[in-house]
UniProtKB/TrEMBL annotation:
The organism's place on the tree of life at top rank: Eukaryota
Keywords associated with the record: Membrane, Transmembrane, Transmembrane helix
MF annotations from Gene Ontology: extracellular ligand-gated monoatomic ion channel activity; transmembrane signaling receptor activity
Predominant location category: membrane
Lineage: Eukaryota, Sar, Alveolata, Dinophyceae, Suessiales
Protein name: Uncharacterized protein
Compartments where found: Membrane
UniProt cross-references to InterPro entries, sorted A to Z: Neur_chan_lig-bd_sf (IPR036734), Neur_channel (IPR006201), Neuro-gated_channel_TM_sf (IPR036719), Neuro_actylchol_rec (IPR038050)
Species the sequence originates in: Symbiodinium necroappetens
An example Gene Ontology CC term for this record: membrane
Transmembrane segments annotated in the record for this chain: 197-218, 230-251, 263-280, 292-313
UniProt topology in membrane: Multi-pass membrane protein
Amino acid sequence: MRVSPSEIADRVRRSSDSGSPKYFMAVRANVDKLMQIKQLEESFSARFFFEARLKGGLAERFLRRTARNCLEEPTDESPKPKVWMDYKDGSSVVKMSWVIAGEFAEKLELKSFPFDCQELSVTLCLGVPCLAGKEQVCFQRPDEDESKVILNVFSLQNSWMRPERVFLKFDWTDKDKNWQGHQFPTVKISVYLQRKYGFYIWNVVLPMFLIASMSACSMSIHIDKVADRLSATLTLVLTAVAYKYITAQMVPTIGYNTWLDKYVLACFWFLVVIVLENCVAGRFDEQTESSWFMFIGIMFILTNIGFAIWAWILVAQATTQAKEGPGAQACCEGCLAELSDDMAGDALCEC
C-alpha cells in the first residue's frame, strides 16, 4: 500500500503534535568490494559503506545512542559506526557512517540457472523501537540518488557481470517476532548480479546435445544386431549420467530442478527412448523403424528449440532485473510509523 505525500505530511503533523520527536533520516549506501560468491554454501563476501544523515543539532545525541546500540564488532573487518557533525548551507548535519565487511548468507534463487540474476543484500536494523510518545525514525531518500556501485575490488568478473545500481528498501521488522511486540526500522541494501552463462553452454549444454544427437548413429547398425546397437547407445547413456552428476555438483542441495538440470534430464530421456527403440527394433521392418526414428528426431529438435527460446527469455528477464532491480513496488519513498496507544507502530508505506 503506497501512501500519498499529503497523507504522510498529515500524519507527521499529527504525530509531532503528540510530542514525540521525529527524525527524518536520509540514507545512502555504496558497494566497495565484491570478493566471492560461494554458491554451494549460499553466501558471499563483500564490503558496503552505509551513511545516514540527520539535520539539526538535537539529532547528534540520538545518532550516538543508536551507534552504541550496534554490535561492538559486527564482523572481523567492520569497525563500529562513526558519528560526527558537519555544517552545510548554514545548518548542522549529523552523520553516521559504517563500513560493513564480511561474509553474508544469501538465499540463492537458482530455478533459472545458469541464466539467472542474483540479489546480494545486507539488511541493517536500527535499535530504535517504534513506541508511542518516543523518538521515531522516518527513512528518506536524498534528493538525488547518492548510492553507487564503486567496486574497487571485483573478483567475480570472469563469472558475473558488474552490477550497475544499488537498491535501497525501507521496511519494519515483524512485531510478532519480538517478545515485546516492538517494530524496528530496517534498511535493505541490494545489488543484482547477472551470471555469465558461456561456461555452462560450452561445457554442459553443447556436449549433452552432441551426446544425445550421436545416439542416431545406432541407425547405421543393422536392425538384426540388437546387442551392438544397445552397446553403443548404453555407452552414451552412461556418459549422460556422468554429466548429470556434474551438474548436481554445481548447485547447493535444493528441492527443485534448475534450467540446466531440466535440459540434461531431457537429453537423458531421449537416450532412454532410443534404448527402448533398439530393444524392439527387431519386431519392425526397416521402413517402420525409419519412421519412428524420424519422429524421435523431430521431437528432439523441437525440444531443443523450446529450450533455446526459454533460455533467451530467461536471459532477457535477468538483464532487466539487473538494471531495474526489484521494481517500483519493492522500494518505498519513505516509511513512517503511525502511533496509537495500543500498538507498537505500523509502517504507513508497505512494500
